[in-house]
Amino acid sequence: MTTPTPQDLIIIGNGMVGHHLVEQLVERGTAAHFRITVFGEERHPAYDRVHLSEYFSGRDAADLALGEADFYPTHDITLRLGEGVSRIDRENREVITDQGRYPYDSLVLATGSYPFVPPIPGAETGQPNRLVYRTLDDLDAIRAAATDARRGVVVGGGLLGLEAANALKSLDLEAHVVEFAPRLMPVQLDDQGGTALREKIEELGVGVHLNRATTEITAGDDYRYRMTFKDGEYLETDLIVFSAGIRPQDTLARECRLEIGERGGIVIDDECRTSDPEIFAIGECALWDNRIFGLVAPGYTMARCAADALSGPFRGPEPAGERFAGADMSTKLKLLGVDVGSIGDAHGTSDGAISYRYSDEATGVYRRLVISGDGKRVIGAVLVGDNDPYDTLMQYAQNGIALPEDPASLILPSVEGAPTLGADALPEGATICSCHNVTKGAISETIDAGACDLGAVKSATKASSGCGGCAALLKSVVDHELEARGVEVDHSICEHFAHTRQELYSIVRVEGIKTFSELIAKHGASSTPSLGSSSAPKLGSSSAPKLGCDICKPAVASILASCFNEPITDAAHVPLQDTNDTFMANMQKNGTYSVVPRIPGGEITPSKLRVLGEVGEKYGLYTKITGGQRVDLFGARLEQLPDIWSELIEAGFETGHAYGKSTRTVKSCVGSTWCRYGVQDSVGMAIYLENRYKGLRSPHKLKFAVSGCTRECAEAQSKDVGVIATENGWNLYVCGNGGMRPRHGELFATDLDDDSLIRTIDRFLMFYVRTADRLQRTSVWRENLEGGLDYLKDVVIDDSLGLGEELESQMRHVIDNYECEWANALGDPEKLKRFRSFVNDARPDPDIIVTEERGQLRPA
Amino acid sequence: MTTATAKDPTMTQTWQPLCTKADLVAHSGVAAWIETPEGPVQVAVFYLPAGPDMPGPPGQATELFAVDHHDPFSDANVIARGIVGDIQGEPVVASPIYKQHFRLADGQCVEDESVRLRCWPLRFEGERVLIDLG
Ligand SMILES: Cc1cc2nc3c(=O)[nH]c(=O)nc-3n(C[C@H](O)[C@H](O)[C@H](O)COP(=O)(O)OP(=O)(O)OC[C@H]3O[C@@H](n4cnc5c(N)ncnc54)[C@H](O)[C@@H]3O)c2cc1C
Ligand code: HEM
Ligand code: SF4
Ligand code: FES
Prior knowledge:
The complex is a heterodimer. By secondary structure, chain A is of the alpha/beta class. Among the domains of chain A are: 7-114 and 248-314, FAD/NAD(P)-binding domain (3-Layer(bba) Sandwich); 117-244, FAD/NAD(P)-binding domain, CATH 3.50.50; 328-421, Enolase-like, domain 1, CATH 3.30.390.30; 663-816, Sulfite Reductase Hemoprotein, domain 1 (2-Layer Sandwich). Chain A has 25 helices and 39 strands. Chain A is globular. Chain B has one domain: Rieske Iron-sulfur Protein (3-layer Sandwich). Helices cover 0% and strands 43% of the residues of chain B. Chain B is built from no helices and 12 strands. Chain B has strands at 15-20, 28-36, 39-47, 64-68, 70-71, 76-77, 83-87, 90-94, 101-103, 119-120, 122-125, 128-132. Chain B has a 4-stranded antiparallel sheet, with no helix packed on it. In chain B, strands 1-12-11 form a 3-stranded antiparallel sheet, with no helix packed on it. In chain B, strands 7-8-9 form a 3-stranded antiparallel sheet, with no helix packed on it. In chain B, strand 5 and strand 6 (76-77) form a beta hairpin. At the A-B interface, helix 14, helix 15 and helix 16 of A face strand 2, strand 6, strand 7 and strand 8 of B. The structure holds flavin-adenine dinucleotide, protoporphyrin IX containing FE, iron/sulfur cluster (SF4) and FE2/S2 (inorganic) cluster (FES).
């Protein structure tokens, strides 16, 4: 049935699911057939409620927004925010708000749910202590109530309650959780899991009160309020957040007499139609098969089904639209920093279900595996303290994969790391990304259609762009699928070595190999036959030696330097280097170089500053201050470099390694020496660190910064290594990045004294040098590190691999062997031979032409 | 072999001194200045000795190569400062600016068929390096 004039489609609710529906309609081209109006009660356009808590850790409403700001106008969709619908008139097919009546042909309810507040005297509607945790405005209210508050209580120990408790903690309140049931997360966890979680959470300083039913809230003596419990006990607090469950927002539907479930929820069929076929309901307000789905992934599935149903009249019968068929409620989360996972039948209530349990009281790890009565399949699981097995268990459960001989092996810690399910073991129908419903089969199809790497698959399928939980699995499936097609997902560094950088690193370490020629002779790839190129047949045999290339040579040079720190200009190493390293300066686009002397911590005496000015003037160099708090002198010709450097070294400068994949600068603020807020000497620490790590060559450049107090003027959280002074010492942040893909550094250790700070950085850096890929910054390395930050902490701080000593001594070797490369080169006439414009003529390159701009010279 | 060396080796050759062996840097390049009938040219000279220490050029008759020092992509004179390596056994130099590879044997750019550096034959005579400018 096609209609000539566009029909009116109204969507009530601009939450996550309502927004997803609009996107789906646009994607299907259906949006153009309707005049679409969306009503949202909240004043914000749809935002990422799943990550709501990040509102307290640095993200603002704009960061959390879903989709582009101009999405609605671009597609001619009217978005009416701050305008709640008060009534639906089904007879006249109109929705009514306090601003008017709007006609509809089709209507979608995506009204979500509201937090349930138990009927407790003293917490009635309108009471200031009646705080909830659902919207951005709720969080603003909590933030306001938290000013001048010391203690906060969350009523409800479920998933959201624990998240709210974390938020209270992040507002510097003493946080407590009051739960009615005898355990935390009663829905997802069993007794033992709840106990393990409770212990972990109490360790974090959050008070946990179980079996407590609040009967009354009155004014308190020491705090603003007093909560009295059924057993007569009481707890005083300044602030109360209710998180005692959610209820479907079905008021509109109730009032217009749509069918409603016994305990609430708008009844829908497989197409998401309510009892009125022109009205749909999706998301948390909808009741399917007598169930409410309180997660975003099932909501998105409903949005797709409704979009298909609405698109029906505008497309052919094939393929049939998607039908809602229930959803898996398994979840994997980090609550207060503790991993918690729950899969399928976590309580083992199915007939004949058999459970395996593993519990480690030392680390607080608890795992339960539930298998079917016939012993063939995984039907549920509970994980606390460590979610590593989640992906594998989830795939077993979702895809009915046959159990291994000893099912317990799935949850037992194994010495070589848990056995993970290979991508090849998954059936075609296996869901890889549940947020966007991407199956393994769909991934193969996009690859067959030409996607040839992870990035292409991601943009074609949207996989991994929802909650992000599937990222690791997606990568392994894509790699596997590419490999299966003979696309070599080659992890070797280049055609000359069938090894990764990490493998080459350990070969060099273990065998003590000190030159490239030795490495390629012993470990080079066996000669590959020449591709049938049109060029001449080879004179040599197929075992002809290999020269290496511009990929492996600098990579090996960097490994050799990280390990042995011999001068890079030594005869054996010089042919390996990129031109910047060879000439110890940064080549610019016209073939000239820039010169950056080291200025540790950005501190420089006036007389040294004068020398820079004099050198710049004498050699006609363009001068600019860098972002790393030092001075860059541009436009030096090759043959000028030695003279420039003799003058700089004479004045006490050293090379700044601005050309190397190595330690760049340690930026610092002025710190306690001058600043009235400073609590430590940030400049002193910055200079110390810069002098310690200067000359350390690494897979990519390393930037550091030190701030003298929490105001963070040195922007240390955007560096590979960031140090921020505290009253008691130093907080260490790692793996931050600026540039193209900014990443906040992560807090790695707190209140370290000088020695522990340095020991921790030593180990961290050497572990990075040892395990990172070629040209991989610490930020990317960290994101790809299996086990993430916790694993990194285990290795570096807790020394779980027993490597600490070794990493420190390797760093000591690098530091002990430091030598200014320019001073070394200037002392060796052989090395200086290379700094000639022409070996047979002293004239400068006549093609370098400059022009003047703003009083300085620049390339013409 | 079909290299683009400017001259057929059977024709009369005009070898002239370019520099000395000591001026070269093994497994790497240096720049030299030469006057030709068509005007001055900057050449990049590469020396790839086979030796116990370092593999020589696979399957090549010579260990000396001369190509244009001028990089057609960046328009800067920098080719001698690139990294020398091989692609499937063919010795190449990578431009230090935008990283295109040029075959040392015939100057052909690997990434762009339409670009080729000029090249000239070189040989040792004792400690001297001679170039054939044709
Ligand atoms: C703190 C927090 C953490 C969460 N974490 C996770 C998680 O880790 N994983 C997960 O899967 N899910 C999580 N969820 C649940 C997830 O956010 C919801 O499942 C999802 O937001 C549901 O989307 P929805 O569109 O159905 O409802 P909502 O996002 O609530 O949107 C409904 C919208 O409709 C509006 N509305 C209601 N009535 C009217 C009316 N009469 N007129 C106009 N507008 C109206 C509401 O104001 C609201 O904006 C979390 C939820 C919270 C609060
Ligand atoms: C090829 C292009 C580039 C070159 C050659 C280059 C070179 C450099 C050098 C040599 C430094 C160090 C200066 C010092 O050590 O004091 C530096 C610093 C810096 N560069 Fe670049 N850069 C380039 C592109 C970029 C780009 C594209 C960005 C941003 C997107 C960027 C952002 C920075 C920043 C933020 C710093 C300062 C780092 C700090 O504060 O520690 N650079 N750059
Ligand atoms: S970070 Fe603190 S100590 Fe450093 S300059 Fe800023 S306010 Fe002062
Ligand atoms: S599962 Fe959430 S993004 Fe893939």
